[in-house]
Amino acid sequence: MSDQAFNFAYLDEATKRMIRRALLKGIAVPGYQVPFASREMPMPYGWGTGGVQVTAACLTPEDTLKVIDQGADDTTNAVSIRAFFARTAGVETTTRTGEASVIQTRHRIPEEPLVEGQILVYQVPIPEPLRFLEPRESETRKMHALEEYGLMHVKLYEDIARHGEISTAYAYPVRVEGRYVMDPSPIPKFDNPKLSDNPAIQLFGAGREQRIYALPPYTQVVSLDFEDHPFVASKAEHSCDLCGCGTSYLDEVITDDRGGRMFVCSDTDFCETRRAQGHRGRLAPEERT
Amino acid sequence: MSDLSGGFAHAPEQAARAFRACLETLARPGQVQRLEGAAPPAPLSPAAGAVLLTLVDQAVRLHLAPSHDRPEIRDWIAFHCGAPLVAAEEADFALGSWEALQPVGRFAIGTPAYPDRAATLIVEMETLAPPNARLTGPGIARDAEARLPEIAAFADNRARFPLGFDCFFTSGDRVSGLPRSTKVEAL
């Protein structure tokens, strides 16, 4: 089969119209999960089928696409999706956050602040923040309709009762514009503050669960907490061992079987940019002359 | 025989660009975007034609207000979109001038369980300037200004949030958007 056998951005036009209508309703009701008729994609569920469909519905030929998986541009998922759209849509791709107009992400928000004109597309496994508390869709739908979110605060309270602090570290629930409680996808809670008041459009796609939701730019997004246990955007208490950054989100890497380990920026583009600027961390290789 | 030309010549690419304009305008109320590529029969504006080509098809129901309920427009929509034409109460999308769309209380505003099942109004305007309304809410950094056909109807629409209809305002090849989430005041 030749490459010409694809429609632009893979999906057929009727499917794109259906996804586009869902995206616009998502923008109109920030944080509400819009049902959509998710299609089978040429990748398994859990690999970003929702994000891929949202990206396909948004891409124009002029776009520059960046794809990250846990902050990294060079992992299997990110490389595959980037190659998929380079082939089916013919768009430019990049690893630089600042050069991208559309960024599809699995579980991170880039360190470099986003700007107006950019779109951030999240891959979402379980879009319903109440799902692990109430398995019935008919009930969670009623709870959202009635703004009945007490159960979520009970869950966070039980964290405190058991661990002395809110132990939820990722997919930390947020309230959007004082109305809908939303699952921000499994981003670390370190990234939660970046959801709010962001100049970029944020779109969320859950393929298996057939839901789309959205945050328009400059939307107020508040992480749920208690007055005496305020939300803390935590990270590992280290600096990046490659670029020395003390404020970025870090991955822990085991380096040997004797307890050796290092911490590195999860955002590879951010880390590479800093190293190119001459920043050096504890374990950074010596500069070659 | 009416003229059925004026659709997208390169549908995938032109629809993608038109959708991005729609997405940006609905996500940033007060912003005006160009919407090109469609050449529908008068009085349908090129921008409204592009919105129809981008979002409306056999899967949705369209209401034509009296200002746009004309044989050549019906034929054009039947050929390019194929959407069934329905009464205002049943419509997913509605097209017309603001006066012709009255009373807007007829349009679907969704249900508490499914607020997405609400109508999208494509409102044809003489002009999108000068502004007569101040906008605040999601999508707007501090406040923005926009030209609206009136103020009260949109303030009422906001009061029902998360229910309510959403609007695109079209004039010539320009479009702006107003989601139900935007707070509206007279300038």
UniProtKB/TrEMBL annotation, chain A:
A biological-process GO annotation: organic phosphonate catabolic process
What the entry lists under Pfam families is as follows: PhnJ
Which keywords does this Swiss-Prot/TrEMBL entry list?
Answer: 4Fe-4S, Iron, Iron-sulfur, Lyase, Metal-binding, S-adenosyl-L-methionine
Q: Which E.C. number(s) belong to this protein?
A: 4.7.1.1
Q: Which reaction does it catalyse?
A: alpha-D-ribose 1-methylphosphonate 5-phosphate + AH2 + S-adenosyl-L-methionine = alpha-D-ribose 1,2-cyclic phosphate 5-phosphate + methane + 5'-deoxyadenosine + L-methionine + A + H(+)
InterPro entries the UniProt entry points to: PhnJ
Record carries keyword Iron = yes
Domain of life assignment: Bacteria
GO molecular function annotations of the record: 4 iron, 4 sulfur cluster binding; alpha-D-ribose 1-methylphosphonate 5-phosphate C-P-lyase activity; metal ion binding
What job does the chain carry out?
Catalyzes the breakage of the C-P bond in alpha-D-ribose 1-methylphosphonate 5-phosphate (PRPn) forming alpha-D-ribose.
Q: Which family does it belong to?
A: Belongs to the PhnJ family.
Know the name of this protein? Alpha-D-ribose 1-methylphosphonate 5-phosphate C-P lyase
What is the native source organism of this protein?
Thioclava atlantica
UniProtKB/TrEMBL annotation, chain B:
Q: Does the keyword rRNA processing apply?
A: no
Q: What superkingdom does the record give?
A: Bacteria
The GO molecular function terms of this record are: lyase activity
Entry-linked SUPFAM superfamilies: PhnH-like
- Tell me, which GO biological process terms does this entry list? organic phosphonate metabolic process
Q: Which InterPro entries match?
A: PhnH-like_sp, Phosphonate_metab_PhnH
Q: Keywords, A to Z?
A: Lyase
Pfam families the record matches: PhnH
Query: Could you tell me what this protein is called?
Result: Carbon-phosphorus lyase complex subunit
Lineage of producing organism: Bacteria, Pseudomonadati, Pseudomonadota, Alphaproteobacteria, Rhodobacterales
